[in-house]
Amino acid sequence: MNQPPAADELVFYVNGNKIVEKNADPEVMLLSYLRKKLRLTGTKYGCGGGGCGSCTVMVSTMHPISKKIQHYPVTACLLPICSLNNMAVTTTEGIGNSARLHPVQERIAKAHGSQCGFCTPGMVMSMYALLRNYPEPTTSQIMDALSGNICRCTGYRPILDGCKTFSKGCCLNNEVNEGPQKKKCCLDRRDEENDLPELKNFPLLFNEKEFLPLDKTQELIFPPDLQLALAGKQRMKVFQGERVTWYSPSTLKELLELRTKYPEAPLVMGNTNIGLQTNLHGVFHPVMISPINVHDLYTVAPDDAGITIGSAVTLAQLKTILSESVHKLPKHKTKTFQALIQQLRTLAGEQIRSMATLGGHIASKLAISDLNPVLAAAGAQLNLISKGSQRRLQLNKSFFDEAVSSGISPNEVLLSVFIPFTEKEEFVSAFRQAQRERNAYAIVNAGMRVRFGEGTDMIQDMDIFYGGIGSTTLSAKNTSQALIGRHWNEEMLQEACRLALEEISITPSAPGGMVEYKRTMTISFFFKFFLQVLQNRNKTVTLSGGATEYLSSIKDFDTEIPKTLQIFQEIDTKQPARDPVGRPIVHLSGIKQATGEAVYVDDMPPVDQELFIAFATSTRAHAKILSIDETEARQVPGVVDIIRAKDVPGKNAVDGQGTLFSEETVECVGQIICAVVADTSDHARRAATKIKIAYEDIEPAIITIEDAIKYKSFYEPFKGIKHGNAEEAFKTADHILEGEVHICGQEQFYMETNSLIVIPKGEENEFDIYVSTQDISTSQFAVAAVLGVPSNRIMSRVKRVGGAFGGKVTKPAIFASAAAVAAQKTKRPIRCVLERGEDMLITAGRHPVSGKYKVGCMNDGKIVAADVSFYTNAGCTIDESFLVLVVALVKMDSAYNFPNLNCRAIACKTNLPSNTAFRGFGFPQTGLVTETIMDAIAIKCRLPSHKVIQ
């Protein structure tokens, strides 16, 4: 039997303090290490996938080639501690505290940029990392720096207001266009603000002059002993964890030997893709290889044909390298670079761009890759190396084709990527359509290239690649080949669109759905490419329909830097100083939230002998449970017990939420069947996935509102309101309109997932509960019921909640009850902190609604009668659905007069997790139905909408 190699010590710094970890586990992420080992709880868990930014910290290191100190933001939830050897980490606790604030912390807090405060430390560190590199950033740089951070409370305005006080430059970085289309710099727009009357007479939300100045000489320096260590000769490091061995080679030779020995082991650099697989999808790798210290992977070598960029270069560094090349080289050579820069501006957030590498991005072959379509269309080549051989591989259709084994071999390493220059008659464009401009996966993206014969418009060569519409990047090779030799005109455009639609087949089961939309985007992108090429070649657009309206489709939307204007009533001079009304008072916890000192439930110190709980949930929508096999789960190290329905001493149900632990049947995916209690959260979650549950499906599985109507699956009683006589009034109407409106559900996405601690007191069945909830009594009564004790034996506490929006009114009672049963059985404290996916699966969110209306109106748009039915998808239990129906009914008429109205609201019982309270509580859905009615009347009567509304 092979013995694991001897483990090395991991050395890194956190907030200026040296950390020597003798038992570094490759499965431990920096976020977990900071919070659990170092007790630096200012860095928060928000999603576990690097998408929300609440775990942002700054990493400092020495570049292996230039030897310059680099500072960049990272998401700690994806960063293995083993990748931090000889690096320095800075968290919000390391830059300041409530007694000695850092200017970033002060300005975000005093500009009112913190509400629930859970995202605030991440915002602080994103801005801090920017300031370490650019002490006087432009407002555009601030927007980029915060693009990877989500805030669910503030709407971002006060955060940006506070951060923009550091900006001394203009929004366009002093690069204002010349000529008649010249844009106004933000610094030149102040005269517009001065046009507002008496603005100076109104108070401000904050006074910039009172803020602490930014003094870059007072920041933490990169530790000198790390500089010495990095300057000396490096050797391979090996870290041995509970299940995983981590190799960090220092030379290319060592890397190739490891690759030969462990061909199936993943190469880990930024861990942005592999980390998602392991954190969120349970993928396991017993061996990991991290070539982060192999200098050969950081090459940047331009030549006469193009530029070779090392595979370990991060996407943020790539953007800088390409931008510098664009400024130095003739414009016609850098068209591919410009297209890549365009994609890099919006790819993920700044943290992920600072972690993810070019090589990792390419090798992952992600279907939604924004760079691969452009690189492939531009003719990029991969330089591959293995032990004893080296080759160059074209990034083309064969590389992405899953049915063809012509990619990177398991024993090979992607050394670098060659990106060729473009010729004068060659054009490259990138396209991307997403639900948001930044930090969002593309729905569809594309890279397109065409080369013409010199002095002609005849196509010599062409490549078209699409992303987001299949399981990998797709090539329209047949379309491209068929167009070679054609002239660049409208006939070619029509033929290209027809061929592309035929070649790029999108199946109904394609990831992400939206099949027709994606089909439209494939030809829309080519149409834009056609126009861009004509414009860049200074050719007149002569298409049937008019040149002007077509050219508007290729104009970039100007991303305006958000500019706020707030006017407040001046405070009366006679108002007592102690009277807070109307005064811009800083949030009482704002400073502590910015410094990471504010304590949320999971920030509380460990309780002696505490255990962690994780849930095994249903994978079927409607089924009978045949068996539950705990054998494998109990073999996971650290497992203490498994909690099931038989362990509940009181009522195995939570009012409004249904059964607590399902034993016989399940009514939705995500319904709790049992819970694992273990010594760590990782052990508990790992064991929960090992529980084997056998099912027998029960028909029907009712999923949609339409299904519920078909099977008459409703909760009773129905709700309704009625006034006037709608039936008679309809007879007097000039027009009767009927229609339907369908509104999808929504996830609250509170930044802090459901979190709680249950502590048995040891006498008379008394328990203390610390729970993140909006309704503490609901959790208290629920726990008392499942334990079968009086509610006065349950002491519930809540100090602050990291966002809720209605989602933490009733749902925390489920988790508190389950944890209380575990605490009662084990007689030990239980900590429950849900993972993001688990939270979203079990708790559901806003109710989907179908509204059916019949409305009668006169020719002048006046409403005489309406008959409206609302159907809500309540899910498998009633929860708050009846209250949502009542609000929907009461708010249905909104601000309008419906003199005769019949309105009913019906809660549909379906096999989905039960939906619950959500900000607006039914009004957003019913409001959309009402506004749809008003628009329908305006269209029918041929009147402006505002006339009908009046």
From TrEMBL:
The keyword Transcription does not apply. Mo-molybdopterin binds at Q774, F805, R919. One of its GO terms (molecular function) is FAD binding. Binds 2 [2Fe-2S] clusters. Binds 1 Mo-molybdopterin (Mo-MPT) cofactor per subunit. Gene3D superfamilies: 3.10.20.30, 3.30.465.10, [2Fe-2S]-binding domain, Aldehyde oxidase/xanthine dehydrogenase, a/b hammerhead, Aldehyde oxidase/xanthine dehydrogenase, molybdopterin binding domain, CO dehydrogenase flavoprotein, C-terminal domain, Uridine Diphospho-n-acetylenolpyruvylglucosamine Reductase, domain 2. FAD binds at L267, V268, M269, G270, N271, T272, N273, I274, D370, L414, R432. Transmembrane segments: none annotated. Substrate binds at F921. Residues 239-424 form the FAD-binding PCMH-type domain. [2Fe-2S] cluster 2 binds at C116, C119, C151, C153. [2Fe-2S] cluster 1 binds at C47, C52, C55, C77. The keyword Transmembrane does not apply. Residues 8-95 form the 2Fe-2S ferredoxin-type domain. Keywords: 2Fe-2S, FAD, Flavoprotein, Iron, Iron-sulfur, Metal-binding, Molybdenum, Oxidoreductase. Its cofactor is FAD; [2Fe-2S] cluster; Mo-molybdopterin. Belongs to the xanthine dehydrogenase family. Homodimer. This is Aldehyde oxidase. It comes from Leptobrachium leishanense.
